[in-house]
Amino acid sequence: MRAFLLFALVACLILGTGVLQSWNSALLILNMGLVSAVMALGVNLQWGLAGLFNVGVMGFVALGGLAVVLVSMPPVPAAWAAGGVQILTGLVIGAASIVAAVLVWSRLRGALRGWATAAVLLAGMVIYRMVLDPAVDAVEAVDPALAGYLGGLGLPVLLAWPVGGLLAAGVALVIGKTALGLRSDYLAIATLGIAEIIIAVLKNEDWMARGVKNVIGLPRPVPYEVDLQADPAFVERAAGFGLDPTTASTLYVKLEYGILFAVVLIALLVLAQLALKSPWGRMMRAIRDNETAARAMGKDVTARHLQVFILGSAICGVAGAMMTTLDGQLTPGTYQPLRYTFLIWVMVIVGGSGNNLGAVLGGFLIWFLWVQVEPMAQVLMGLVTAGMADGSWLKGHLLDSVQHMRLLTMGVILLLVLRLNPRGLLPER
Q1: Quick one: which of 15, 48, 145, 160 could link to 354 by a disulfide (CB 3.0–4.6 Å)?
Q2: Is the pLDDT of residue 57 over 80?
Q3: Spatial CB neighbours of 202, under 8 Å, sequence gap ≥ 6
Q4: Any residues with CB less than 8 A from the CB of 333 and at least 6 apart, and which?
Q5: How far apart are CA 176 and CA 199, in angstroms?
Q6: Strand partners, 18
Q7: Exposed, middle or buried: residue 379 (CB in 10 Å: 0-12, 13-18, 19+)?
Q8: Which stretches does DSSP call E strand in 266-396?
């Protein structure tokens, strides 16, 4: 009953937005709430189920966005002809150098091991740069205003969602192999640093996804508004509901996105619930509560942590692909830890760590507040300063501070929940 009432409250808040503001705003909040809930599920799987403190959520979300470009955008033939194969060759050489260095380090002993490993890495780096750099320059010189990158595979954009999960899972495997042996605080530092490295690569490697020049015009899994407005049958149906074609088309597109996102969220929620109640889920919670006892019972704690780290990161990658598809563009400069790490953690903590329904609830509730706090504060400050003289420094200061109310509200909510109800709105059962 408590869960039902809380979800009903969130539904009323979204419906109220539609009635008081616009249904376009309500559907946009709903769609981003669905995406945020998927991200919160991934973090809850890592933290709530296994106790892994991953603050590199932003990096895995960005990898999901990159997958949309690599899968759905058409290839750029001129860029491939200029240096596409050479770039792939350089990447293979770089990966082979790392593998060779690892083999040398594992097979040699004594002082020779360090020198031999350094020599392999140095030689590999020189060859890698000699092959890669000229090809990158050639590719980025191909129509840099509109292209300047290799493009993608030209496949349906919906395929990019599972590919985003696989890409994030592959990077999580590499990270987990090196970082999951660290203590929780060091793991947090390592994942945060790796996320920043991922964003730096996206911003600077123009040949891959145009860097900060952004990739726009991504394919969509739903119709375009202009196509709907040109369809006489759609215009007639819209008129039957008393809507003009422009409003009806925007509502229809957002509603279709909402249906797609809801299907993904429900599927992941069902799978997460099955995992939580399975023997594997009980084992993960036992490891979370007492690693020493779990090791004494013969459980491979590091391997299980790696499993759940990969699964949670994959879910965040899927969410990142969904969000980029909704935006219609990849903008690496917008990936900020405040939005894609801190806010997701607030959703999990407020909703209820260890409870999948709580993570979903937190995703909807916190996103609604993140969007609506600023206009609410604008109205409140307008009332507070109504009696003040125009041009007053205090009135100007209060009105200019409205934009900071969003951050203040998130901090106050987090402090109140941690102080009054540290297990969240829907505690783990």
Answers
A1: 48
A2: yes
A3: 62, 66, 208, 209, 211, 332, 335
A4: 203, 212, 214
A5: 18
A6: none
A7: exposed
A8: 329-330
Angstrom CA distances, 429 to 357, 384, 421, 424, 426, stand at 11, 44, 15, 12, 9
- Map tokens 């509109």 to a residue: 146
Provide mean pLDDT across the span 65-77. Answer: 94
Give the pair of three-digit tokens for residue 23: 């249904």
pLDDT tens sequence across 388-428: 777 777 777 777 777 778 888 888 888 898 888 888 888 88
Instruction: Judge contact between 150 and 80, C-beta under 8 A.
Output: yes
Helix residue spans in 180-296 (DSSP H): 184-204, 206-209, 225-229, 232-240, 245-277, 279-289, 291-296
3-state DSSP helix/strand/coil % of the chain, to nearest 5 = 80, 0, 20
- Provide the phi-psi class of 27: left if phi over 0, else alpha when psi is between -120 and 50, else beta: alpha
Under a CB-based contact definition with an 8 Å cutoff, are residues 384 and 401 in contact? no
Amino acid at 352: G
> 161: which DSSP letter?
H
Confidence of residue 384 (pLDDT cuts 50, 70, 90): confident
Domain limits of the chain? 2-75+151-420, 77-150
HSE of 92, CA atoms in CB hemisphere, 13 A: 6
Which two tokens mark 207?
A: 């040949």
Put simply, whether the predicted model's pTM sits higher than 0.90 gets the answer: yes
Rounded CA separation 42/318 (Å): 10
Residue at 122: amino acid letter: L
Position 164: which residue type?
G
User: Which residues does residue 75 pair with via DSSP β-bridges, in sequence order?
Assistant: 151
| CA distance linking residue 24 with residue 36, whole number of Å | 18
